[in-house]
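Our preliminary data section would be incomplete without showing what the modeling component actually yields. Below, a chain of 272 amino acids is followed by its predicted structure, encoded as tokens that our downstream tools consume directly.
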Amino acid sequence: MGAFKLPKRGLMQSANMNVMIKAARLAGRSLAKDFREVENLQVSSKGAGDFVSRADIAAEEIIRECLMDARPNYGWLGEESEPVEGNDPTRRWIVDPLDGTTNFLHGLPHWAVSIALEHKGEIVAGIVFDPAKDEMFIAEKGQGATMNAQRLRVSGRTKMIESVFATGLPFGGRPELPSALKEIAHLLPMTAGVRRFGAAALDLAYVAAGRYEGYWERRLNAWDIAAGLLIVREAGGLIDGIEPGTDPLIVGNLIASNEKIFDTFAGAVRDT
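Predicted structure:
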């Protein structure tokens, strides 16, 4: 009989994480089915350039039922429903059932399910699940981050000119477009490129995986970034608000990158 081997550190999962993974996969299965029939979706407008689909709402209902059945005392903050104050005021689920809705509705296979668990104001567990590519990014506080059970680590690049960054761009005539274009114009000459893929949760997951060296964006919601923030940090990355020392989860803007280029990158964003 072979010797018993302990599991690798970072691959053991808490009971809460197991529930989160189950919820993400169930929602992902529902979304993938609707994605294959995207031209038939009934879509309604929530505002200029911001759409919500039947698939989005159905996915949130699946996640909410799964999480709240397992942890009925926890609070809830979801993109498509009213917040709930739980009987346990210290714990709250933060959920975006479909990050990258516009991509989804245009048949672009770059969107994700994002689920985070907050405890006493701090994110302690997070999942970003990309059903189209079957990539599951997960992290728990102090346990590291993984993608499909493989340990994640941020990029080791040290030079801006060799680095690729991601950001978001205002859409639908939002007034912050001129400042966003100014930031990109300032950063592009000192980098290997800037990408705009349209899913904040995946942008953060890609920083954690070393696919991007950094990411910055403004006017984000807590459900867009809660899980991704923890995944980046557990992969060895740094995160701060665009205004130094602010909490991205509260102020809705952030800068994320590896430690080696963070100061240079953050300085370039803040200098515009």
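The longest strand covers residues 91-99. The helical segments are 15-35, 54-70, 101-105, 177-187, 200-208, 222-234, 248-251, 262-270. Preliminary results of this kind motivate Aim 1 of the renewal.
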